[in-house]
Design a protein that fits this description.
CATH superfamily: P-loop containing nucleotide triphosphate hydrolases
Strand content: 25-35%
Strand order of the largest sheet: 8-9-10-5-11-12
Oligomer: single chain
Number of domains: 1
Number of strands: 12
CATH topology: Rossmann fold
Number of helices: 12
Amino acid sequence: MTNDIPQNKTKPESSFGYHDGEVESVISVDDVNRQAQELAETIGEEKIAGLSRGEPFLKIEGLHAGYGKMEILHDFNLQVGKGQSLCMIGPNGAGKSTVLHSIFGFTNIFSGQIMTRIGGSETAITKMSSNQKLKVAGISYILQDNSVFPDMTVEENLMMGGYLKENTDAARQSTEKIFEKYDRLKARRNKPAKVLSGGERRLLEISRALVMEPSILLVDEPSIGLEPRFIDMVFEILDDLQHNEGKTIIMVEQNAKKGLEFCDIGYVLVSGNLAMAGSGDELLANPDVGRLFLGG
């Protein structure tokens, strides 16, 4: 009987990461941090403003923020225009999700300002509660974790997204609009959420955030844990929300290539600082970004 398993198999020279493609070598997170810090640019307000194409819809100025007494973000600045998308990439622990948490009110803000346009006027929202940011400023947060209620129906999950609506009827009307838009959810409206596929659960999480009819979506790791076919579906949904409904999207994405391909603006964060900024296409074409974050 022939043994088909090679006895002297050598380790392949290249390795695969969680991004598309293969890489010739593997480096540690500490090495990525160190090399990215060496590449960090001095990014002036003019460049940040230029990427937002005119009047910013959401703006962060000189933000120092973190958790407890620990400062994670150091003099952080951001601008994104209405109907634009911005993706933040960088090594683990760079502060990417902390930016989203700060916008939505989940961090301690030591100094700096967060502003958005409400009723046509620039308004400081730095000290608003998360409920105020959702109801008054139109900012909704889509968590990276599986946040559906598995034993509740799809419809009940959506209704939970309208908890700040004036009354149940208003939440129900928003829910019906979502069912009209997404047949996949409508067909399962009375089914428990636990029967949904991974992609359908992510669609439900996004849709629940839409019940309050926000103008800004904070999206944390939309592709995490999904099969490639569902990743494409989720980004198609986000593309529709941006380009057909005019939503402003600020995203953190571990699949850096996918995130930069999708977004108008790309930021690279390192150790709580903005290290690089450009259009998504510019960062995709940058060989140093490719070497450190894109797997090649």
